[in-house]
Amino acid sequence: MQQVAVSVLGEEKLLSELGAPLPLDRLVAGNGAWEIEIGFGKGRYLLQRAAAAGSRRFLGIEMAGPYYRLARRRMERRALDNVVLIRGEALYCLAAVLPVGFATVVHVYFPDPWPKLRHHKRRLFDPETVDLVLGLLRPGGRLDFATDHLDYGQVVCRLLDSHPLTAVSVLRGLWEDGARTNYEAKYEAERRPILRLRVDWQPAGCSHGLHPEGLQGVLAATSIRTEEEEAAE
Fold it and tell me: What is the pLDDT of residues 122-157, one digit of tens each?
């Protein structure tokens, strides 16, 4: 597996040098709210948001090395000191690298739908992985999602809508700030149908925070007693 790399303005380190979960408050100064983009591609939206909202802090995850390096160069040219870029596999970063419940907004735009049945477990939104994505959010946080693969989008919509801690809205038309990625701008020009979802996290209390379908994949172990302990009863 490729080593996880972490970049801030003027510096790049490996995860092994920083430890996990990442010490985000040491990487980026200030106390502004965090926004995350999972799969930031060439960095168009992430860096635009960081430049426009300087009081906020931004983190992006991208597995493709060329895209990560391009976004890093753009971050340096724009002197954006409120950005953390991570090169790594998204589910690994969500499960083992990032802290839980620290983000106000999570952005996911046009993720790989992995259409073949045998590849479904690689999807970012799956019953057993959806809580890794939603678990990044603070109570009252928000997920923005878009895809042009409508069949996959309907799967994601159903999955999110059946979560006990979400309220899902389907957006009609573009986001309030227009097309957010190069793909979205291209698909809008081509008039390709796009499904956009806005998901509010934890609108009401609940006894647990896991997706009910994902619970089937959770392993629970009872205590193991020795033969001596059993004989003593």
Answer: 789 988 889 999 999 999 999 999 999 999 999 999
Distances, alpha carbon 135 to alpha carbons 42, 131, 140, in Å: 25, 5, 12
CA distance readout (Å), 84 to 1, 8, 36, 46, 123: 21, 5, 9, 10, 24
Q: Which of 81, 112, 148, 200 is catalytic?
A: 112
- If one looks up domain 5-232 in CATH, what number appears? 3.40.50.150
pTM above 0.90, yes or no: no
* Residue 132 main-chain phi, psi, to 5 deg: -65, -40
User: How do the domains of the chain map onto residue ranges?
Assistant: 5-232
Is 151 labeled as catalytic in the residue annotation?
A: no
Q: Give the whole-angstrom CA distance, residue 33 versus residue 56.
A: 5
